[in-house]
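Hi again,

Forgot to attach this to my earlier email, sorry! This is the prediction with N-hydroxy-L-asparagine bound. I've pasted everything inline since the attachment limit keeps bouncing my files.
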Amino acid sequence: MNTRRKFIKKSAVTAVGIPLINVSNCYGAQQEVEKNISKKIIPTVISTWENQKANEAAWNVIKSGGSSLDAVETGVKVPEADPEDQSVGYGGRPDRKGIVTLDACIMNADGDAGSVSFLQGIKHPISVARKVMEETPHVMLVGSGAERFALAKGFEKINLLTDLSKREFEDWKKTSKYKPVINIEQHDTIGMLAIDKNGDIAGACTTSGLAYKMHGRVGDSPIIGAGMFVDNEIGGAAATGMGEAVLKSLGSFLVVELMRQGRTPFEACKEAVMRIIKKQQFGDIQVGYIAINKEGEYGAFAIQQGFNYVITQKGQTQLIDGQFFKK
Ligand code: SD4
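Structure tokens for the complex follow:
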């Protein structure tokens, strides 16, 4: 961590544990500091879809005083390891060549980011993404380069294609009909955001991407600002659904920037969805956003009915149906 960051980190917590940003050299500094003093930290975990177990794993990290970064990594590793979750990690649906390829990204409260894409044979792409962030001068590694890096860091190479996903793929091949329509049953990419007891925000996103995608296709999930984005002064956002639509609007970055301009997490998610609706063909696709701000307020919005998300605060985990544009 460079000296400036260390300094900000040191000065970022007051005696009562309230995060302050060192803005003394900026215009409007006093106003900014006063605004932050009145903020109360609400440790929070939020994730896309029915990922209650992931939230609980993340919450346990936060409860015991761990960082939001450790929390989101621990949380999303739950569906990554679950063979029954066919959209994430081990057991994910393959591409049209029958190969499972994984995308993931992670960001910490210092604004550092790491990402892997088109990664094959590694159960926990999120942990590889974290190593890219922490142990390389880069943000993103892809394909065989990412795999080689993972193996060098001690990750084990395994077969990610389970019997169930293989059988479904064999069935799909009978028609090879490909219309990249995401419907509710076919996806549960996990995007997760967390605020820890220091008020620091981190995020993670991990997926096997669209089932039967073209070999080499990369979606939004590993792209910083598309699948997930965190700015520790403002909040974080994550996306799920049709990655192409999210990529074309850099959705998660947009949500965070809208919160910076004063929108609530819900309003920001809604506006990002409305951008897709205004500018893209949205009839058959699903995109859902989740967001949190620095005060632990949260919100979500999706194009279609059927999107849900999980929120954990004060040890209580709730599954919430997201609001949507179109029934
Ligand atoms: C992608 N956004 O690869 C991912 C898919 C997804 O739940 O969200 N699935 O486009």
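The domain at 40-326 is CATH 3.60.20.30 (Glutamine Phosphoribosylpyrophosphate, subunit 1, domain 1). The longest strand covers residues 113-119.

That should be everything now.

G.
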